[in-house]
Amino acid sequence: MESRIELSAMHQLAEARDEDDNWTGLKDREARRKRQYRLNSRSYNGSTVFPLSSDHLIPLVQFNAFRGTLTNMMILSVTHLIPPECDITEALHSTPLFTPPPAPPPSLMPTALQQSVPHDTWIDLLPDATVRDNAIRTMHLFRAEDICGDMLGNPQQGRNTIEMNGVLVWGNPWDASGWEMTEGFLKKWGFLLKGCWEAMAATNHWRAQRGDEPLVFDVS
Predict the structure, then answer these.
(1) Is 82 a domain residue?
(2) Would you state the pLDDT for residue 151?
(3) Is residue 15 domain-resident?
(4) 189: Cβ–Cβ under 8 A, 6 or more apart, which residues?
(5) Which of 97, 99, 148, 204 could form an S-S bond across to 214 if both were Cys, CB 3.0 to 4.6 Å?
């Protein structure tokens, strides 16, 4: 009996326009990632206009971090705490959020430290209890706007995602396993990851999906 091999187009290349968009077979990691991010961004922006800027193309990965943060804010019912100067009212109504769980997940439930020590709201949005506690213990060492700017990126700077000191959201934003930290983030904010083995495992899981080498970072 003659066997058949069914051929179908790779969904990862659905947005490819020419050979320069084809990342399959590339051995150079930086070149491969640049093409992957280009296709992802083209795919998302083909149907959605980012609500915060009409002058800049926001990479998909940066947009996902933003919408993931908004999703966690909606889950915790804290959108009313957004400062007026942030001016993201339109974003709250026009950004397609991740489908939230029916009830607040355990990963976002406040720790004893959160309930006893005054702190900024952004800390409550982090999907890892240990990271949240670390942030509260060290919040006197850094400015909130610095880490928030790194995590979500700054479109006005036009930096490539690969060079960001930020985080990427590939799964549910209320689950630490859906987040990936960039190498730049670990170098700058690694002190927040003490005891966060799950966060490091998630980061290297997503890197492995792209064929990247795991990041080695001591979180003990």
Answers:
(1) yes
(2) 85
(3) no
(4) 147, 150, 165
(5) 204
